[in-house]
């Protein structure tokens, strides 16, 4: 079977830009799998600097998610567990190359990053779905001569690619979100503390030097009245 689900999302926040389902092979793909895919993308959003560039994630029904982070984008697919892991990442590499080429063609070498960063609407690049369909057809049969050649020519080390369970990954996403919330709260509280500290320092200075300043002003006033009035 070919890759069953394919998503491309923005890496900064997990916004899905395009999604595709293999219509003739997706009997085992449930709404839960689609929700898990979105949760993975959201969990990666804003954390890709410290996240693995590639990972495989076991889920239910003997299926596995694979993702690739590259060029400000997350490329995610769902395959059967028996589908060759190396071929799944070769598929994601081709999707990544094609999507970047499409961005450059539409927005130019200098403008594609801005177009990607300013996109606000989910699935704004839905026209790329046709390209995913064409690429997916090339990966239907892992034993085909074309795919066998690809596997033989690929020298990438897939043994180092991490493999986790879906529950571990989603739990990690929740923890990352909690850490983010805690960090935001600490920043707000530190700003309040700084303002409070400045206020207390000012009050202390007024209490310490206020009487002397008042006495000096009074002396100047008396001298002025005595000699110049």
Structure description:
The structure is a single chain. The protein is an alpha+beta fold and 229 residues long. 55% of the residues lie in helices and 16% in strands. The chain has helices at residues 31-44, 85-107, 112-118, 129-137, 145-153, 166-228, and strands spanning 5-10, 16-21, 54-58, 63-70, 73-80, 162-165. The protein has a six-stranded mixed β-sheet, with helices on both faces. A hairpin with a 5-residue loop joins strand 1 (5-10) and strand 2 (16-21). Helix 1 packs parallel to helix 6 (166-228). The longest helix is centred in the last third of the chain and has 63 residues, at 166-228. The protein is elongated and about 110 Å long. The N and C termini lie far apart (104 Å). The model is unreliable at 174-183 (pLDDT under 50).
Short synopsis of the structure:
This protein is of the alpha+beta class. 55% of the residues lie in helices and 16% in strands. It starts with a strand and ends with a helix.
